[in-house]
Amino acid sequence: MYARILVPLEHAPADETILAHVRDLARRLGSSLVLIHVADGWVARNIKELDLRESEEMREDRAYLEQICGRLQAEGLDVDAVLAAGDPAKEIADAAQREGCDLIAMATHGHRLLEDVVRGSTATALRHITKVPILMVRSDKK
Questions:
Q1: Structural contact between residues 134 and 126, judged by C-beta atoms closer than 8 angstroms
Q2: Are 6 and 104 in contact (CB under 8 A)?
Q3: Which pLDDT score, from 0 to 100, does residue 98 have?
Q4: How many domains does the chain have?
């Protein structure tokens, strides 16, 4: 049903919620996984335009992705990892298309309405810019 699943990670405890879910889903369906983290600090948002080097935060994000990817591969899963930079919703949508993913599976925090209005929601923005189905799993971890 889903051959390739894109899994946005935040480099936060909530990642374990979605990883547990997609690990089982990928095993059952024989799906491959693409892990993505979108660095969105100042350097990440301006790296291309200003020809900047990766920040320490981006290097830590890359190491985190590689560690999670290695852990899942050691469990026998087919996993790739992508570190992107910029607007999270746009980068996730672009990666889903570029990587040939047919499902995006992500953790949500269940923000209250006011918080989403103030902070915005990657999941909400993503729904408006991609045709790839999105599976949202609520996490109580922040």
A1: yes
A2: yes
A3: 96
A4: 1
Domain region containing 47: 4-138
Distance CA 40, CA 94 (A): 15
Rounded distance between C-alpha atoms, residue 16 and residue 12, angstroms: 8
- How many other C-beta atoms can be found within 10 angstroms of the C-beta atom of residue 65? 20
Strand partners, 37: 83
Identity of residue 85: A
Token pair in block for residue 60: 């830590």
State the sign of the Cα–Cα–Cα–Cα dihedral 40, 91, 107, 37.
Answer: negative
Q: For the chain, give the secondary structure using H, E and C.
A: CCCEEEEECCCCCCHHHHHHHHHHHHHHHCCEEEEEEEECCHHHHHCCCCCCCCCHHHHHHHHHHHHHHHHHHHCCCCEEEEEEECCHHHHHHHHHHHCCCCEEEEEECCCCHHHHHHHCCHHHHHHHHCCCCEEEEECCCC
Pick the residue with more confidence: 14 or 102? Answer: 102
Looking at residue 11, which CATH number applies to its domain? Answer: 3.40.50.620
Instruction: Check pLDDT > 60 for residue 49.
Output: no
Specify the pTM.
0.84
